[in-house]
UniProtKB/TrEMBL annotation:
It comes from Peronospora destructor. This is RCC1-like domain-containing protein. It comes from the Eukaryota. The keyword rRNA processing does not apply. The lineage of its organism: Eukaryota, Sar, Stramenopiles, Oomycota, Peronosporomycetes. SUPFAM superfamilies: RCC1/BLIP-II.
Length: 392
């Protein structure tokens, strides 16, 4: 089965890897002879993208204005408009990458080194932070999930522990409202018994998913992106606006999500800059936060300060959020998008914002089944295969 990689949206920093700085309003197929089809996983951040090849090598392309591509010093600051075969220099040559996350100005990678097998995973970070690239963690940890926000990073281990570092000005580190900055990873003790399996970063908020599908949030709540309206409602009128921005800097549970008896355990979560999208065990799409560009898919350009169910009649395979646009792949391989479309990132051939999930006709017209998608900033990526006749 031949797989293809399609990219579209903003290419102003070369983050599409197409060799240009142009925006594309329709999906563009990458040449199948290029490196991209050998990628085991791909992710995208504010203005740069990354991929891990099947042999564990890590490649980055797009904006390098803060050194986020991890190249040799003489090339830093030069954007890379194609998927270069040059290996990233910020990690040891003998290492194999297993996870990568792209923030706005930084990159976070987890590697397994053949010469350090007994010491657990190693974590490296580079870009806007001037500190050494290696992230120091307790020895022997196995990393299960990583995420980058605007100025903060999160990591979850296979044992369910969570570490946070970077800016905490809005409580996004989950370490309490007094922690404004953590220069080294700090364990979030309030989550130690929650068996966190996945972490996600918005612009200035954080989301944690437990192995049982519960959801916890902390950080900036200006647009309702924490999904906990009762905290705001219970605050006095004089400090209600401040409580809307930040909920004590400690993770709080989003009501009902994780309730298996109601089928509300979350299976997938994705974060935009100021909103959250979830797929539940029952197959529902649930969302909350900023909706001014239609990214919530609720049919209106308004915020939602508590979880709302999206009216969507199809079974869902996967979800993904860019900065302010959403992507939903159905079990039948169709792609639907909504939200911010200024750079063509919705894939409909225009620059229009959409408040409801709308089918991307391009793939059906070209007999392509969408297998998986990635979104970042104003960028969209999709891996496809030739559609089976029964799914037409």
């Amino acid at each position: 089965m031949e797989k293809r990689l399609y990219v579209w949206g903003s290419g102003g920093s070369g983050q599409l890897g197409l060799g240009t700085l142009d925006d594309y309003t329709l999906p563009q197929c990458r040449d199948t002879s290029q490196l991209s089809v050998q990628m085991e996983s791909i992710t995208s951040g504010g203005c740069h993208s990354a991929g891990i090849q099947t042999d564990g090598r890590l490649f980055l392309w797009g904006s390098d204005d803060r050194g986020q591509l991890g190249r040799i010093a003489s090339k830093r600051g030069q954007n890379c408009v194609t998927v270069s075969r040059e290996h990233v220099k910020c990690i040891p040559d003998e290492s194999k990458a297993k996870l990568v996350a792209c923030g706005w100005w930084n990159t976070l990678a987890v590697v397994v080194s053949e010469s350090h097998d007994n010491h657990g995973d190693r974590v490296f970070s580079w870009g806007s932070n001037e500190s050494p690239p290696i992230v120091y963690l307790p020895q022997g940890l196995q990393v299960a999930s990583i995420a980058c926000g605007w100025k903060h990073s999160l990591l979850a281990t296979s044992a369910g522990d969570v570490f946070a570092w970077g800016s905490g000005r809005h409580g996004q580190l989950g370490l309490g409202s007094d922690t404004l900055v953590a220069s080294m990873p700090q364990r979030i003790d309030t989550l130690k018994d929650m068996a966190v399996s996945n972490v996600f970063c918005g612009w200035e908020h954080s989301v944690f998913r437990s192995s049982g599908g519960e959801v916890f949030t902390c950080g900036n709540n200006r647009h309702g992106q924490l999904g906990v309206p009762e905290v705001v409602a219970s605050a006095s009128s004089e400090n209600r606006n401040e409580r809307r921005k930040q909920v004590n800097g400690s993770p709080v549970r989003v009501p009902d999500l994780g309730n298996s008896s109601k089928g509300l355990s979350t299976m997938q979560i994705s974060c935009g800059w100021h909103y959250v999208l979830c797929l539940t065990e029952r197959g529902d799409l649930v969302t909350w936060g900023k909706g001014s560009h239609g990214q919530l898919g609720l049919g209106q350009f308004e915020n939602a300060i508590e979880p709302k169910k999206i009216a969507f009649p199809h079974s869902v395979r996967q979800i993904a959020c860019g900065s302010e646009h959403s992507m939903v792949v159905t079990q039948s391989g169709d792609l639907y998008t909504c939200g911010w479309g200024e750079h063509g990132n919705l894939g409909h051939g225009d620059n229009t914002n959409r408040a409801s999930l709308t089918k991307v006709a391009f793939f059906a017209n070209n007999i392509q089944e969408v297998i998986s998608v990635v979104a970042g900033g104003a960028v969209s990526l999709a891996v496809t295969s030739t559609r089976h006749p029964s799914k037409n």
